[in-house]
Design brief:
With 296 residues, the protein is of the alpha/beta class. The chain contains 10 helices and 13 strands. Helix 1 packs across helix 2 and helix 1 packs across helix 4.
C-alpha cells in the first residue's frame, strides 16, 4: 500500500535539500525525516538521495526518476483537498428545496429572496409538492432541504427543527358571520358546507384523525388541492374553509373578508418543520439556507 506521508517527506527533503530544513517545514524531528527516507528507500529497493557535504541530492537512478511524478501527484492531492474545503466553506452549486405551494408562499419565499441576494451564484431548484410527496424525495435523496406540514412520523428522514406553529380554524365570509359571534360545537361544522384540503395531505389527515378521536365526523362538500383556492372559495361564499389561521391573518384582520368561526374543542395546533435526507452530508450552501430560519 502506498504511504503518502513517506512520499511527502521525500518531496520536502528534495525541495529543501536538507533533512534539517525539511524537518522544520514538516514540523517533525530530523531523525523522523531520516527514518522516513530510509523506509521509502527500502520499499522501493533503491537509494533516493546522495548524501553530500552540501546536503541531500536526488540520486540519478532513484530520486530523479520519481521526483516529477511525486510532485504532480501531491499537487493534485492538494488540489482535491482544497476543492473539498471550498465546497464545505463556500455556497456554490445547486440547492434543491421542496415544499408545498402554500409553504413556499407563506413561509419560504422571503428567505429565498434573502438567500439569493446573499449567494447569487447558487442555483435554486424549487420542487412544489405536498408533504407526502416531499417525504419520498427526501428518502430518495432528490432534495437537499424540505419543509413539511407536521406531524410526520418517519424514521427515514432527518427532521431537525420546527420553524412555525399552525393553528387550524374555520373561516367563512359574511354569509356565516353570525357563527363567528359565539363559540360553536365542533360537531356542528358537519351541518355546513365544508371546504377542506385533499384527503391525501398531512393537514387533512391530522384534522380528521383528531375529530374522529372525539367522535366527530367532518365530511367536506368541496375538496381542494390548493389552500389558496380554498380561501378564495370561502371568500366567495361557497362554504366554510378549514385553514391555518396564520395563512388568513390579512383576510381576518385587515380586509375583513373572512370571519373566524371558533369551535369547542378547538383543533389541535400543528407546525411546519425542516427536514434533510437521512445519512447524507449537508452542503455548505444548504446549511446557509437553513441558518436563515434559525436566526435569534
Amino acid at each position: 500500500m502506498v504511504n503518502l506521508e513517506l512520499y511527502r517527506v521525500f518531496y520536502t527533503v528534495a525541495k529543501c535539500g536538507s533533512l534539517t530544513r525539511a524537518a522544520d517545514e514538516l514540523f517533525i524531528s530530523q531523525p523522523a525525516v531520516s527514518q522516513a527516507i530510509k523506509q521509502l528507500e527500502g520499499q522501493l529497493g533503491t537509494p533516493l538521495f546522495n548524501r553530500t557535504h552540501r546536503g541531500m541530492e536526488l540520486s540519478d537512478r532513484g530520486g530523479k526518476q520519481i521526483f516529477d511524478i511525486v510532485a504532480r501527484a501531491l499537487a493534485e492531492l492538494d488540489e482535491a483537498e482544497n476543492k473539498l474545503k471550498e465546497i464545505n466553506s463556500t455556497a456554490t452549486g445547486t440547492i434543491r428545496i421542496s415544499a408545498s405551494d402554500t409553504i413556499f408562499s407563506y413561509v419560504v419565499i422571503d428567505k429565498i429572496a434573502e438567500y439569493h441576494e446573499k449567494f447569487p451564484d447558487v442555483k435554486i431548484n424549487l420542487i412544489n409538492c405536498i408533504t407526502t410527496e416531499t417525504l419520498d424525495l427526501l428518502k430518495n435523496n432528490k432534495c437537499d432541504i424540505a419543509f413539511l406540514n407536521l406531524p410526520v412520523d418517519d424514521k427515514d428522514i432527518n427532521l431537525t427543527s420546527v420553524i412555525m406553529p399552525l393553528h387550524d380554524t374555520f373561516v367563512a365570509n359574511k354569509n356565516y358571520a353570525a357563527l363567528a359571534e359565539d363559540v360553536q360545537p365542533l360537531k356542528s361544522m358537519h351541518d355546513y358546507p365544508l371546504l377542506m384540503l385533499d384527503q391525501n395531505t398531512v393537514t387533512r389527515k391530522a384534522i380528521i384523525n383528531f375529530s374522529h378521536s372525539i367522535g366527530v365526523h367532518l365530511h367536506p362538500e368541496v375538496e381542494c388541492g390548493s389552500l389558496e383556492l380554498m380561501i378564495q372559495l370561502a371568500k366567495n361564499g361557497v362554504g366554510i374553509a378549514c385553514v391555518p389561521k396564520e395563512y388568513v391573518r390579512r383576510e381576518l384582520n385587515d380586509d375583513k373578508t373572512l370571519f373566524e368561526i371558533r369551535t369547542e374543542p378547538a383543533l389541535p395546533a400543528r407546525s411546519i418543520g425542516i427536514a434533510f435526507p437521512k445519512n447524507q452530508p449537508i452542503s455548505y450552501a444548504t446549511k446557509e439556507f437553513f441558518k436563515l430560519f434559525n436566526k435569534e
